[in-house]
Backbone:
């Protein structure tokens, strides 16, 4: 390989750097969601919840089972999209009912002093879910399946978090830290190996890509290519879309598949393939001539959901009575109890929030990436999220977000540099470096605490 070839490869590699950086931000946002569960539990209980990765795994399986109930089973007919099981009108009605109930509970909790504070939280949650159902059913009915899967994963993971806290961690609260730590490891192993007895594990199942209507890619040009190449793309786009539409209509009319076409179907299929090849070649030339970032629409959607969840968490922690109680318990467990705060309820609430965020992240990754599921599905993401929490400062919520983003960017940079085999090892390298030079994390304190 000559010098010119090396320079060309270097130029192509640098052109892909912005895209890899964006991918790192998107991946890091998921790590941040999981890391928030670690850091919130540690902030309140001073306990590292090693079973959090398994809660993430269960969230992915719940999304899988929800997709089965919606009709996206492995036995679904090849070449045909499943029918919408939940009608948009029905979902809009459910959303209105939940919204009315949520607002009623919220207003009642403000006027009646005897109603517990958590009723206000339930009312707010029902209001948000109801509004979400209504808006999606009206504006994006094709996303209803995704909303149902997301809410299912969050609710079930929240319930799992409550069960783990109540029956595993609460009885150990008066014991030593090391006893609680061993309990957490035991719960993790129980969910990994015990789950294999009940969950589909071999062969590993995966969520059908048909459940995701946002599979198209979006290209953002940072430095546009030559105008003539852009004109070639526009000229090839029309025939590509037209022939694709003709082939889709033919398949829907005749119920043939791509592997069993008649002569007429083969002619239409060949024309569609030729137009697609011409369009892709023109698009590839235009993209490589400039600097662009190509991201799938589902990843943009995923980032939007993560931002909304983090904004909701920030509001909850900083501007609500439950958030103030959480901060009080985190600051001093005994003093908060003496001030009238129900410590057990706050600890349970913390597990609910952290576990539901893990469920949301698991649903999005398992659905949008279509990765095969096993009962060890949450092992590596859990470890990376734990490292992200340590990197940002364990017990620090902004630190968990920062650590998750840095972890995602570091992983994608390793892949960009050509060392994809070592992308999982970077988490442990970062952990060692942080523990050596800044044990408290980037935004955490350097206070020494015994386990």
Residues:
């Amino acid at each position: 390989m000559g010098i010119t070839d090396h320079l060309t490869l270097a130029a192509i590699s640098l052109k892909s750097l912005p895209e890899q950086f964006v991918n790192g931000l998107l991946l890091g946002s998921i790590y941040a969601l999981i890391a928030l569960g670690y850091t919130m539990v540690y902030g309140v209980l001073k306990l590292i919840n090693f079973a959090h990765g398994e809660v993430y795994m269960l969230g992915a399986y719940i999304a899988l089972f929800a997709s089965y109930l919606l009709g996206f089973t492995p036995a679904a007919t090849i070449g045909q999209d499943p029918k919408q099981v939940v009608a948009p009108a029905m979902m809009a009605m459910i959303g209105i009912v939940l919204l009315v109930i949520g607002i009623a509970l919220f207003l009642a909790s403000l006027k009646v002093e005897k109603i517990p504070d958590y009723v206000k939280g339930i009312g707010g949650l029902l209001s948000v879910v109801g509004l979400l159902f209504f808006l999606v059913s009206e504006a994006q009915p094709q996303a209803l399946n995704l909303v149902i899967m997301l809410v299912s994963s969050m609710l079930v993971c929240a319930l799992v978090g409550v069960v783990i806290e109540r029956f595993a961690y609460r009885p150990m609260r008066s014991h030593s830290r090391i006893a609680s730590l061993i309990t957490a490891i035991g719960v993790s192993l129980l969910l990994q190996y015990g789950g294999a007895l009940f969950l589909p594990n071999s062969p590993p199942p995966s969520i059908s890509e048909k459940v995701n209507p946002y599979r198209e890619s979006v290209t953002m040009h940072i430095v546009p290519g030559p105008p003539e190449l852009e004109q070639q793309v526009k000229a090839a786009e029309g025939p590509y879309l037209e022939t694709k539409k003709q082939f889709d209509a033919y398949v829907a009319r005749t119920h043939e598949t791509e592997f069993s076409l008649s002569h007429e179907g083969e002619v239409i299929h060949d024309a569609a393939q030729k137009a697609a090849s011409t369009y892709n070649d023109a698009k590839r030339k235009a993209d490589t001539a400039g600097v662009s970032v190509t991201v799938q629409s589902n990843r943009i959607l995923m980032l939007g959901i993560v931002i909304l969840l983090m904004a909701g968490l920030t509001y909850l922690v900083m501007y609500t009575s439950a958030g103030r109680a959480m901060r009080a318990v985190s600051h001093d467990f005994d003093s908060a109890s003496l001030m009238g705060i129900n410590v057990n309820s706050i600890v349970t609430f913390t597990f609910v929030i952290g576990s539901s965020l893990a469920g949301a992240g698991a649903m999005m990754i398992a659905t949008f990436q279509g990765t095969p599921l096993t009962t060890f599905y949450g092992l590596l993401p859990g470890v990376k999220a734990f490292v992200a929490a340590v990197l940002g400062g364990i017990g620090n919520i902004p630190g968990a977000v920062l650590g998750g983003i840095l972890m995602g960017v570091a992983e994608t940079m390793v892949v960009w540099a050509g060392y994809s085999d070592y992308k999982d090892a970077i988490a442990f390298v970062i952990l060692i470096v942080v523990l050596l030079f800044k044990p408290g994390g980037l935004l955490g304190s350097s206070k020494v605490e015994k386990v």
User: Anything to note?
Assistant: The CA atoms of residues 47 and 273 lie 56 Å apart. The first strand starts at residue 217 and ends at 223. The chain is about 70% helix and 5% strand.
